[in-house]
Amino acid sequence: MKDVSKGHVAILIVNIIFGLNIPIAKEVLSNGIIDPLALTYFRVVGAALVFWFASIFIKSEKLTKKDFLILFLGSIFAISLNQTSFIVGLQTTTPIDASLIITLTPIITMLISAAYLKEPITTKKSIGVLVGLSGALILILNSEAFKAGGSGSWTGNMLCLLSSTSYAAYLVFFRDFIKTKHPITIMKWMFLFSIVILAPIALPTAISTDISRITPIIYSQIFYVVVMSTFLTYLLIPIGQKKLRPTTLTMYNYLQPIIAAIVAIVMVQDKFGWDKILSAVLVFLGVYIVTKSKTRQQLDEEKLRKQNNNLEKTK
Prior knowledge:
It is a single chain. The protein has 315 residues and is mostly helical. The protein has one domain (3-314). The chain is built from 15 helices and no strands. Helix 6 (123-141) runs antiparallel to helix 14 (274-292). The chain is globular and about 85 Å long. 44% of the residues are buried. The model has no long low-confidence stretch (mean pLDDT 82).
């Protein structure tokens, strides 16, 4: 299989898994047996154990003090803040709302890249951002909790947005470092750091969980959340990043609301209304426009070609 094909397959699998994870995680939380913070901690601890076990089978990499500092900071953005805000938010919002907000990640990434990496914000990119954000606003402002002035779905949507923002920041700020190490080396340390970071707020809740009430079905759902949507996805994402261009990679995010919607409707967790359909179309259209806009490198190359052409004409 060609390298590019491997990247496509990796990201395709990742987004199918993430799409299925939203209604499955929602189902785990809906029975009231497991608290969102407890599920987050189970997820982090479980994934850490699997990553450390997997590290036995790869060549050990030497890390400097600076590397450990970067991994610690990365664990905050990519895991601790990202997963905690998502799981807690998911308890008070719907699976479809959560999946649609997650699809804003490419747009948020573009904005952070403009500020941090000095990537140009072209007219096409600006239009895409506005179209995508309008889709998210329609989704959030039409939630029943927001209309009623309550803190239900509105709070959940904001937490899911925080989750997307923290992960987008991780992708931009730690982009170069990710490419220098093996995915397992990076993830085993980041998940270990997250165990320590989340312990003060999540460990007491996790310990107090009544394990005797957890049924085999719930155990299977927890297994999916820990092994499939955490270990496997965090293992495959760097593969896709190395093989595909960012614009191509981000387009796969739009499998998530489709998968989540199908499963959520089957599980009677949610239903599609006009606002969700319109939001999905606008968000998809927005990111499509953004990812079709030209990068700084492309603009620089065009500028150089024009300069060369002008020089040729003056000869």
